[in-house]
Amino acid sequence: MASSPPSSPPHPSKKPKMSSSATTSDADEDPSSAPFAAGEPRRRYKRRKVAIFLGYCGAGYQGMQKNPGARTIEGDLEEALFLAGAVPEADRGLPRRYDWARSARTDKGVSAAAQVVSGRFYVDPPGLVARLNAHLSDQIRVFGFKRVTNSFNAKKFCDRRRYVYLIPVFALDPSAHPDREAVMASMGSDNELARCLECSERGRKIPGLMGRWAGSSIAEKRVDPAADETVAVACFSLEESDKSEANKLENFDLGSGGVDEEQHDSSTMIGETTSANMGANEVETGKLVSAATDAAVPANMNPDATVEPVASYVEEYDKFSNEATTTKENSTMEPSASLENQRLEPMVADGTNGEQATVKSKFCYGDEQRERFNRILKNYVGTHNFHNFTTRTKAEDPSARRYIISFDANRVVCIEGIEFVKCEVVGQSFMLHQIRKMIGLAVAVMRNCAPESLMDVALKKDVNINVPTAPEVGLYLDECLFTSYNQKWKDSHEALTMEAYAEEAEEFKMKYIYPHIASMEHKEGAVALWLHSLNQRNYPDFCFTETNIECASASKDQVDNSGEQLL
Fold it and tell me: According to the UniProt entry, which residue ranges have a biased composition of type Pro residues (predicted)?
């Protein structure tokens, strides 16, 4: 009888394989996600697919998307997710492993009041939002998160994006901050324009902008008028004969150093923005304390326009008015001789550091101006080829065709004494610099730098023209909309809207985004300096349609002459 084969030794009990690199349901569990007391079973948390709502101020960041060697919003957020325990060590710096996606990719210096990102994270134990905010800078704020379906992707499921661009009202005034050619052309006419002294000094303090050395002042150094031919930005300095204007600016403190080039590109950290060279302007918790200047109360505010004072600004208005009156009484400015001179004469505020200088103007954003601006913006609505409104995208590329749902500018908000027109654009998606270029061309048309017919020409596929790009500081992402997703999953999942975080988002805008936009205009004149570049010397395509008409007429005359010779 054959002996039976020896029995195999018993196998040791195998422990379940745990992996943080999510391939199975067990891989979503983290056995060491939370501390446990002696005698208690070890807690296991699972990864959950969630959509995170956040806002940020883009100052000091090189955009939203992660970029090696650059400080980005996404880079800081990924690190905060790891430090908060939402991402395991094995997935640190590898966003694809937890299905990372963003709804919008904002450019350098652009802010967001309602950005949405998605991924698979450890949301337990409770308190993830507080842990994330503890590891983020003050200018990035996580509002909350919501559970979504496993197939959700913040980029693909976002139907529409709404952006807001705050453009100062004076930017739409053709007489405000004129270029050099406009000033020279107006000399001797009834509508003579004044040279912009404040922008001359602002530009001189920014290295490389005007070719002037940093720290120069009116009293120390005057610019030779002959050298203005080489100045890229059409700002004007004092001549020897302008002694009366120079006396008005004797006490104008120009600062002791140059402004960093990155600061001129709106890349300054919010901490630096609220502390360096701002005088009495500072940000406190929940409200803004503004400096008492002549611009504290907007002049000639149109009563018919829809003006939205930003929350706590309404409560401070009476105080601003009293302080502004006191400032005017103590000002060393001589009274203007007439209303026309008052409109053109520089009004220097006697503030703490004297950096604010404004020009009084009779221009206001009334019904006529609002109707015209909205008519100009309506040219963008619909499906068009926007290859002229971006970079590195050819007209033949299908991605150049974009659908704009709406574009209007019906409301005016007042921030730190500056009136801003609120331009709201809603579209399916946007390309690099697209919104800033759309605003840039619309402002050029409003200022009569370009004909309105150029709007249709710029949207043609077979035409290549150079379109001005507005500064990035006034642009922010207002909301990401998920209409189709909310309709499809309304019975099983929460709706992805900002309704639950509306108050937090508004408070964040008041505390960081709005003050940053206003302070950049007060300190550096981001929009004011840009306006001086809107001329046909820098943008020859402003006269594109006129040139084409002349060429067509010349060709027609040549054909007619040839026909006569044949006869």
Answer: 1-11
Omega prior to 95 cis, within 30 of 0: no
User: Does 456 participate in catalysis according to the annotation?
Assistant: no
Which whole-number Å values give the CA distances from 148 to 97, 266, 392, 488, in the listed order? 18, 35, 35, 12
Quote the distance between the C-alpha of residue 363 and its chain's center.
Answer: 24
Q: Rounded to an integer, what distance in angstroms lies between the CA atom of residue 92 and that of residue 125? A: 19
**Rounded CA separation 295/415 (Å):** 10
The sign one gets for the Cα dihedral 373, 376, 382, 385 is negative
Q: Looking at residue 84, what DSSP letter applies?
A: T
Distance CA 88, CA 99 (A): 14
Confidence (pLDDT) at 172: 96
What single DSSP character describes residue 242? -
- State how far the Cα of 538 lies from the Cα of 4, in Å rounded to an integer: 97
SS3 call for 450: coil
Structure tokens at 233: 């930005």
Instruction: Find the length of the chain.
Output: 567
Cα distance between residue 333 and residue 425, in whole Å: 41
Provide the 8-state DSSP code for 6.
P
Consecutive 10-residue runs of the chain (567 residues): their mean pLDDT?
Answer: 52 40 41 44 80 97 93 96 95 94 95 97 94 97 97 96 97 85 63 64 48 35 38 36 38 34 37 39 38 39 51 40 43 37 34 42 88 97 97 94 97 95 97 97 95 94 95 96 96 95 96 96 92 90 69 53 50
First to last CA, the chain: 126
Structure tokens at 282: 């500072």
Cβ contacts of 245 within 8 Å, gap of 6 or more: 197, 238, 346
Q: Residue 539 annotated as binding?
A: no
Query: Could you give the CA distance from residue 558 to residue 560 in angstroms, rounded to a whole number?
Result: 5
C-alpha dihedral, 512 to 297 to 217 to 274, nearest 10°: -20
Q: Which of 107, 124, 173, 294 is catalytic?
A: 107
DSSP annotation of 316 reads T
Q: Is the dihedral of CA 501, 497, 409, 64 positive or negative?
A: positive
Per the listing, tokens 């000094």 go with 201
Structure tokens at 162: 């709404």
Other beta carbons within 10 Å of 291: 23
Contact 416, 437 (CB under 8 A): no
The reported pLDDT for the residue numbered 66 is: 92
Question: So what's the pLDDT on residue 45?
Answer: 86
Q: What is the pLDDT of residue 178?
A: 82
- CA 7 vs CA 3, 4, 227: distances in Å: 12, 9, 100
Question: What span, in angstroms and rounded, lies between the C-alpha atoms of 406 and 382?
Answer: 8
- pLDDT, residue 188, reads 62
Q: What DSSP character marks residue 474?
A: G
Contacts for 452-460: CB closer than 8 Å, 24+ residues apart: 452/376, 453/545, 454/541, 454/542, 454/544, 454/545, 455/376, 455/379, 455/380, 456/379, 457/544, 457/545, 458/388, 458/389, 459/379, 459/380, 459/384, 459/385, 459/386, 459/388, 460/385
Nearest alpha carbon to residue 355 among 416, 298, 431 = 416
Q: Residue 2 gets which letter from DSSP? A: P
